[in-house]
Design goal:
The protein is an alpha/beta fold. The protein is built from 31 helices and 25 strands. The strands form five sheets. It has an eight-stranded parallel beta sheet with strand order 1-10-7-6-5-4-3-2. Strands 13-14-15-16-17-18-19-20 form an eight-stranded parallel beta barrel, surrounded by seven helices. Helix 10 links the parallel strand 6 and strand 7. The chain is globular, with a radius of gyration of 28 Å.
Length: 800
């Protein structure tokens, strides 16, 4: 058999299509665990594989999509994980396929910080599955249908750990928003994160039809030089006579597969609703297209969960916000010692709004345990800040804990030329796919000359290469010293930047504010130094993002050095701002307004630590407790929900806000008389029988509880009679379904509720549920979690 590692990216390879669709056609009941068929009915699975091979598939994916112990436990089969996974590879190999891709799908658990599953728990689940699959010698792993980039990243790490020699194809699922449903990750950012994790190819599958997927393939291919995979559904599903139907045709899918190849994809296939006829059309049409020339994007790529940035010579000068550093900031240091992340969140939001491109995070202060505080700060910022993080620590334990849970590509600040630093930092950066800031100093201190600093830098580069890293993983810090202490210090630094950027082609960074230490007029001096360094090739600066002079200097440098060709950033920076808010005494009314605005901001920023304290401030200012809920908290969460509906914020922010809202409401209720603490209404919520997915339901429950509803969470896979019993004591019933095969169970549950509790409102939703389907059931409908809250509120209002 040919080596798939040699073929990846060099020729078009066709991946097979839907397994579930074909098993349904073979008469497999919807409640059957597909992976169990690998031992109870292997002939059915093998025939599906053979049909796809005959149709033209080069790659067959194993029937192990739900093969982690966590998923198999839902069927009572967790103890058979190794047997079922191994059997699947053997069956796929018997099909005669050129390549067998060992499939690894989501665990059904939600990773931190969105959920409770730790990196270690997820890693072991994926590693256990990967070890079993690897025992039978597949050609590659395919991590697929991931809606959270954190889980996808963890799965890639686990697969590479289990079988380092096997390539890993990492495929995520995007919604109509163009982002993953859980983490809100866009295609370019997903590519950066998964490439850094060690994927040999990246791509997307499921979620969308070919037409909707095409622009996302283009965006992903532009962000990486890795091979790209594209496996759309057979069109967007619709309802016909109560059944979910995928309306796409083989010819339409095949034509788009050719367009995928033109866009940069070399792995093409299909997903839900497809059959071997689709594979045949893809094989016929995609192979006719010549592969376009592709090259790696310039610069060092860094990513948060929802945004990515590249820094390097010729690219726009990036500002790394420096405020999250307790040195000289008593409020931040005190909050860190108290275990609160309120000030961290506040500073992050302010810097993001001020135009920072990345955020430096430093928790080093007396009395602060970095190994606890840095991961806590990272968790707080993942749900709040879209920007990539720069992890600024010398504590190896804190660094590793933070790198594990950060669902992006971090920049580690820093490594230097000392043996201890090289031995400690570089292995961690390489293991978790981070880039590093290389400080031009070693045990002998900071060299006085450019040549001395470059010698240290080159030594760090060589050590990095020994860990499998390259210059695309290194950002050189030529070190800024105070001009007050040495008049030549700034000139030496600028010349060193030139040597690193112009002569070696490296991305560079400087902490610009160090140059003005001990001198007056610091902003002007910092800005002038930044412009000098930018002319020498500086790629990024650690600075106060809200400093107008520094920000304008950065924008001017970009415009004048050709890094902002149309001067768009400069125009935005140069636009006059409104006058500063006047100082002076603040009257009682103004104090209340500020306190209310602070509380609303805390909710919108997901500050569950600070929100209860701000409630106390409002109450102390004379605002009635019930007015705090209705006049401040509810409008705040509704504004965020509206922004979510417009695609301006994403699920992580929404979930963090819900937690902050719950904490604030709980504090308010402490001040309400017992008889006044009235619930907004009681909701019975369930995922219907046969459907084991609960993520969407859990998000809705969290939001409902945050806004004062009492929720009876019945769980997933709930029989109709249990829903009906809960309906007797509820004001509203909500039903969720994420699988097309369980829609009939939803209809049964609706009928059971109406028989048990006539007149009670029933709302339905979920990935496969549409407004048309809800109308056919004479039920209410919500497309997302904020919509669910509004629909429930309206239903309760009508019922009362």
């Amino acid at each position: 058999m040919p080596d798939i590692g040699v073929r990846l990216g060099r020729e078009v390879l066709v991946i097979d299509g839907a397994m579930g669709t074909m098993l349904q056609r073979a008469g497999v009941p919807p409640e059957q665990c597909h992976e169990q068929l690998n031992v109870t009915a292997p002939e059915i699975v093998e025939q599906v594989h053979r049909d796809y091979v005959i149709a033209g598939a080069d790659c067959i994916t194993t029937n192990t999509f739900g093969g982690t112990r966590a998923k198999l436990d839902e069927y009572g089969l967790g103890d058979q994980a190794r047997e079922l996974n191994r059997a699947a590879v053997r069956i796929a190999r018997r099909s005669g396929a050129q390549h067998v891709l060992a499939s690894m799908g989501p665990t059904g658990l939600v990773p931190e910080p969105l959920g409770d599953a730790t990196f270690g728990e997820l890693f072991e689940l994926f590693a256990e599955q990967a070890r079993a699959l690897a025992e039978e010698g597949p050609d590659a792993f395919i991590v697929e249908t991931m809606t959270d980039v954190a889980e996808a990243r963890c799965a890639v790490f686990a697969a590479r750990s289990a079988a380092p020699d096997l390539p890993v194809i990492a495929s995520v699922t995007f919604g109509l928003s163009g982002r993953t449903d859980l983490s809100g990750t866009d295609p370019a950012t997903a590519a950066v994160v998964l490439e850094a994790a060690g994927a040999a190819a990246v791509g997307m599958n499921c979620g969308l039809g070919p037409e909707q997927m095409l622009p996302l393939v283009r965006a992903m291919a532009a962000a990486t030089a890795l091979p790209v995979a594209a496996q759309p559904n057979a069109g967007l599903p619709c309802l016909e006579e109560g059944r979910t139907v995928f309306p796409g045709t083989p010819d339409e899918t095949g034509s788009h597969a050719a367009l995928f190849v033109e866009a940069g994809a070399t792995l093409v296939g299909s997903c839900c609703g497809s059959t071997p006829a689709f594979t045949g059309a893809i094989s016929d049409l995609a192979r006719r297209v010549p592969l376009p020339a592709r090259q790696a994007p310039a610069g060092v790529a860094l990513a948060g969960p929802r945004a990515s940035v590249r820094i390097g010579p010729g690219l726009p000068l990036a500002i790394i916000g420096e405020r999250i550093n307790p040195t000289g900031k008593k409020a931040l240091a005190d909050s860190l010692r108290a275990g609160s992340m309120s000030v961290v969140r506040e500073y992050a939001v302010a810097q993001q709004h001020a135009g920072a491109d990345l955020l430096d995070v430093n928790v080093g202060a007396a009395g602060v345990e970095a190994a606890e505080a840095l991961p806590a700060a990272v968790k707080a910022l993942v749900a709040l800040a879209d920007l990539p993080l720069v992890l600024d620590t010398t504590d190896a334990v804190a660094l590793e804990r933070s790198l594990k849970l950060y669902p992006g590509r971090a920049l580690v600040n820093s490594v230097d030329g000392s043996p201890d630093s090289l031995r400690t930092v570089l292995p961690l950066a390489a293991r978790y796919g981070a880039a590093v800031v290389a400080l031009c100093l070693d045990d002998d201190g900071i060299p006085d000359t450019v040549e001395g600093r470059m010698a240290v830098l080159d030594r760090i580069r060589e050590a990095a290469r020994g860990h499998g890293m390259s210059d695309r993983d290194v950002v050189a810090d030529c070190l800024t010293l105070s001009a007050a202490a040495d008049p030549r210090a700034a000139q030496v630094t600028v010349e060193a930047v030139w040597a690193a950027a112009r002569e070696r082609g490296l991305a560079t960074v400087l902490g610009v504010s160090n140059v003005s230490h001990g001198l007056p007029g610091r902003s002007a001096l910092n800005a002038a130094f930044l412009e000098m360094a930018a002319a020498a090739g500086l790629a990024s600066a650690i600075a106060e993002a809200a400093d107008r002079e520094v920000a304008r200097a950065a924008a001017a440098a970009n415009a004048l050095l050709g890094r902002d060709p149309r001067a768009e950033v400069w125009i935005a920076r140069a636009a006059p701002r409104g006058p500063e808010e006047p100082g002076g005494a603040i009257g009682p009314g103004r104090a209340r307004e500020r306190a209310a605005a602070a509380l609303a901001a805390a909710v919108e920023n997901g500050d569950r630590d600070g929100a209860p304290l701000l409630v106390d401030d409002l109450l102390a200012a004379g605002i009635a407790a019930d007015a705090v809920i209705r006049g401040v908290l509810t409008p705040a969460i509704q504004r965020l929900g509206d922004a979510f509906g417009r695609g301006e914020t994403f699920l992580p922010q929404l979930m963090a806000a819900a937690e902050a809202m719950k904490a604030a409401v709980a504090r308010v209720k402490e001040h309400l008389p017992a008889e006044a603490a009235v619930s907004e209404g009681r909701v019975a919520f369930a995922t219907v029988k046969g459907d084991i997915h609960s993520i969407g339901k859990d998000i809705c429950v969290s939001l409902l509880e945050s806004q004062g509803f009492d929720v009876d969470d019945l769980g997933a896979d709930v029989p109709a009679e249990q829903v009906a019993e809960a309906a007797r004591s509820a004001d509203v019933v909500c039903l969720s379904a994420l699988m097309t095969t369980t829609l009939p169970r939803m209809e049964e549950a609706v009928r059971a509720v109406r028989a048990a509790a006539p007149g009670i409102p029933v709302l339905v939703g979920g990935a496969v549920v549409t407004a048309e389907y809800a109308s056919a059931l004479a039920a209410g409908y919500a497309a997302d979690a904020p919509g669910c809250v509004e629909a429930v509120r309206a239903a309760v209002r009508v019922g009362t």
